Amino acid sequence: MSLFDQSTAEEAGPDASRPLADRMRPRTLDEYAGQEHILGPGKPLRAQIERDQLGSIILWGPPGVGKTTLAQIVARMTKSEFLPFSAVLAGIKEIKAVMADAERLRKLGKKTILFVDEIHRFNKAQQDAFLPYVERGDIVLIGATTENPSFEVNAALLSRSKVYMLRALTEEEIAGLLRKALGLLKARASDEVLETIAAASNGDARSAYNTLESAVNAAGEVTEQSVADTLGRKVLLYDKTGEEHYNLISALHKSVRSSDADAALYWLARMLEAGEDRMYIARRVVRMAIEDIGLADPRALEQCMAMQQCVHFLGMPEGDLAIAQAVIYLCVAPKSDAGYKALGEVIGEVRSGRAEPVPMQLRNASTKSMKEWGYGAGYQHAHKFDDAMNQMECLPESLQGKRWYFPTERGVEKRIRERLEEIRKAKGKD
Questions:
Q1: Residue 245: which pLDDT band, with cuts at 50, 70 and 90?
Q2: Fold of the CATH domain 243-332
Q3: In the 8-state DSSP scheme, what is residue 159?
Q4: Please, which pLDDT band fits residue 264 given cuts at 50, 70 and 90?
Q5: How much is the pLDDT for 238?
Q6: Residue 5 pLDDT > 80, yes or no?
Q7: To 10 degrees, the CA torsion angle through 175, 180, 181, 182?
Q8: Got the DSSP string for 336-347?
Q9: Taking all residues of the chain, what is their mean pLDDT, rounded to a whole number?
């Protein structure tokens, strides 16, 4: 398929039967909205396109930001054959057939841009099939993905491509696009209505165009009511197996750690509204209790385990309130990662040192022979001493005197710190 086979029809005017998003597709970089950080005047990507020196690239960004459109503009500006390729529909057989066409065109002196939509959906063998053609220059590969290429694209293919990150369009940019589209639709709308559509689109121009077109088709005009009827409700950008899934739980965790209850509730609501698995959220909230609050407030873990049981027992939406309650509790609780750090330090000690034998006084003499060998010799039963305080060493000789747990001065841990000092003083270890 070549872009230039359609040029006559496009110049004759937009076909009203085509979707608005397709009719509004820009044909030049000057018409292209957003992505100034990579396509602004003097930026390297723009310069490479204008000089026709572009190598293979991966366009990484959310839906509806213009990845396909940018690939088409590149093909048009460089007068290249444009071959769109869907990772959902094609296999290695189709790849080889398309590559044969590209090789033939190269021998005729024509450049081919192979645009691979959703390149992250290709398996390793399919991605590897592109490599020899990219290296020989038979094609300029432009891959598009909504997923982080570092995780989803083979290292070999990634090393031969430059990754450009496209950002979601701003509400102002989308509102500007919608104003231009009104002329094509022969419709009118207030700035407030266009801003409502832009806000609901989550930076997705295609979604905004579809909403505008549906509102016009349904009501003949663009009003707050027609837009509300078209939207139904705001659909949040969220992929429960993709990067946004991890971004949101990270935002929730860091907001709890920072004692910001309002921010934590916002990120929690984003996950709930997007349909995240409630038990996944519950597990992560329990982790926050033991990682960031710990013994500064031992009840935090109790609250979170009660929340987990409540979510399991009630389900949604009632269980959502229990999650919110636990999140608020964690936000206002005193914070301590002393236990978390202590375990990490001890594990590091264990991994880096030799496996010290258990001291004889701590070994259980379960047989007569073991007792003769010295097992249990020197053991001091704590309850036989005043305040249950003995002087027995419980660490191997080479580690005696080591400390890993340093409680903070916050919450209950302050009392724990004081108690530890009493114990060490009584044992003569202060």
A1: confident
A2: Zinc Finger, Delta Prime; domain 3 (1.20.272)
A3: H
A4: very high
A5: 53
A6: no
A7: 90
A8: --HHHHHHHHHH
A9: 85
What's the pLDDT tens digit per position in 350-373? 888 778 889 999 888 888 888 888
- Please name the residues in contact with 404: beta carbons below 8 A apart, sequence gap of 6 or more: 342, 345, 346, 349
Give the pLDDT confidence of 300-326 residue by residue, as tens digits. 999 999 999 999 888 878 899 999 999
The helix (run of H) or strand (run of E) holding residue 273 is: helix 261-273
Give the position of tokens 């080889």. 96
Which residue type occupies 350?
V
Q: Hunting for tokens 């330090």 — which residue is that?
A: 345
Q: Is the pLDDT score of 90 beyond 70? A: no
The listed CATH number (1.10.8.60, 3.90.960.10, 3.30.470.20, 1.10.3720.10) that belongs to domain 171-231: 1.10.8.60
For the domain made up of 3-165, the CATH class stated in words is alpha beta
Q: 131-158 in b/e burial notation, b at 16+ Cβ within 10 A?
A: eebbeeebbbbbbbbbbebeebbbeebb
How much is the pLDDT for 104? Answer: 79
Q: Are strands 57-60 and 112-117 parallel, antiparallel or unpaired?
A: unpaired
Q: Are 141 and 56 in contact (CB under 8 A)?
A: yes
The ranges assigned to domains in the chain are: 3-165, 171-231, 243-332
